[in-house]
Design goal:
globular, transmembrane transporter activity, mainly alpha, transport, Amino acid/polyamine transporter I, 0% strand, transmembrane, 71% helix, Amino acid transporter
């Protein structure tokens, strides 16, 4: 994924514009196919970012309600997704988390820098407590797993063949390494964007990869035995692991820290997704584009933020009739993003390998190997994301992510087919941007 980030940073530096990822796809395809791939990735990215906002709110709610399991507090009908009262409780908390994150986005932009710094401080505090305090707690309670368990033990809870069962472990680890294109979406609001926005893409992927690897290995050592893990009944079992290792009161502190970090995470996601939706609307693709594509007196796309809020709030309502329906919707959120990453790398390899010479992050002799690597790896992750997670496959275990992804792609095709060229991504605009990106590198 760091290689993927390098590929995106290269093109971001040459084309630092809001809603950048679909512009990158369009320009990577070259003039002839630019509009088609631009439409395709625009639909993919908008869907991915807006569903991520909703799913992040439910993740935050899961941390909060897991304290009920820690303190053994009874809930009417039980802590069970089959309980409509429980799903309604999760839904209400999720909507509240969404309101908090969106409200922060309505603040004047002068506060954004402080908010982002606060978010980073929270996340780093959480990280250091996990790598220092958690191991100390584990050593004094249930003890560490052995190195043999951590590095050689496997468990097949999916029913898949052993090899594919192992590959499915990429589902969550790769899921954390997406979204690093966010800094490109706010490029038009970034000073020296051709350097800073591209650097943000690369540095965020490196930071997440390095720190995420350390955290993953540490958590494997600190996880209780499997019998204990499978006995945990909280929506977010790690809250109960905190309680086992550190004590019930300490788990409240760690849960609070995680909740605040997730609220900040969702806030940043709304910032990125609103800029993406704004850019697509500004170009005239979405319904109500004239209203969505407007900015306020401070240059902020407030209407796009409102659209994100409405979409995420409606999506969260699918929790009420069926947890499975909501899970299917949000699981599809990562699929379009991964598809877009891989597609851009493939287009750079096949269609425009020698363009974007103005980039400050040119890959040079490593370009084509990086394009191949990024395209292949993201193809693997895409297959994992759309794969069934339990075998044999039934109507209850079927992964509807592939159905949703195909539906989104069909909508993108229809939009491309019925939208006149003069309304979005005219051929002369593509040629002009491509030429400028190359000429600046020659001057």
């Amino acid at each position: 994924m760091i290689i993927t980030a390098a590929v995106l940073a290269e093109i971001c530096s040459a084309l630092p514009v809001s809603g950048s990822i679909y512009i990158w796809a369009a320009e990577s395809a070259g003039p002839k196919y630019a509009r088609f791939f631009g439409f395709l990735v625009a639909w993919w990215s908008c869907t991915a970012w807006m569903t991520f906002t909703a799913s992040n709110c439910q993740t935050t709610a899961n941390y909060i309600v897991s304290q009920l399991a820690v303190w053994e507090i009874e809930f009417p009908g039980g802590i069970d997704n089959n309980n409509i009262q429980w799903r309604a409780f999760i839904w209400a908390l999720s909507e509240l988390m969404l309101v908090l994150s969106v409200a922060i986005n309505y603040l004047p932009p002068k506060f954004y820098s402080g908010i982002f710094k606060f978010a980073i401080a929270l996340i780093m505090l959480d990280f250091f407590l996990c790598v220092i305090w958690l191991p100390i707690g584990v050593s004094k309670t249930y003890g560490f797993r052995s190195a043999s368990d951590v590095f050689t033990m496997t468990y097949n809870g999916t029913g898949a063949l052993a090899g594919w069962n192992w590959i499915l472990s990429y589902l969550f680890t790769a899921g954390t390494l997406t979204g690093f294109d966010a800094s490109g979406h706010i490029a038009e609001e970034t000073k020296n964007a051709s350097v800073i926005a591209a650097k943000g893409i690369l540095s965020s992927a490196i930071a997440t990869g390095v720190l995420g690897f350390i955290t993953t290995i540490l958590f494997l050592f600190c996880t209780p035995d499997l019998d204990t893990v499978f006995s945990l009944n909280a929506p977010q079992p790690f809250v109960q692991i905190y309680a086992l290792a550190l004590g019930k009161k300490a788990s409240i502190f760690m849960t609070t820290l995680a909740v605040l970090g997730l609220i900040m995470n969702t806030t940043v996601a709304v910032v990125a997704s609103s800029r993406l939706v704004f850019a697509v609307a500004r170009d005239g693709v979405l319904p109500l584009s004239g209203w969505i594509g407007k900015v306020d007196s401070q240059g902020q796309p407030r209407n796009a933020v409102t659209v994100i809020f409405i979409f995420a709030a409606v999506l969260l309502c699918t929790i009420l009739p069926s947890q499975v329906a909501f899970t299917s919707l949000v699981s599809a959120g990562g699929v379009p993003t991964i598809a877009a990453y891989g597609l851009i790398a493939l287009l750079r390899l096949i269609m425009t390998p020698d363009h974007f010479q103005s980039s400050h992050f040119r890959l040079g002799k490593y370009a084509k190997p990086f394009y191949v690597c990024a395209a292949a790896f993201n193809a693997l992750i895409f297959v994992v994301d759309i794969s069934p997670f339990y075998f044999p496959v039934t109507s209850e275990t079927f992964n509807f992510a592939v159905v949703i992804f195909v539906a989104i792609s069909i909508f993108a095709f229809l939009s491309w087919y019925f939208t006149p060229e003069h309304k979005w991504l005219r051929n002369d605009q593509v040629l002009k941007a491509l030429s400028r990106a190359d000429e600046e590198g020659e001057n």
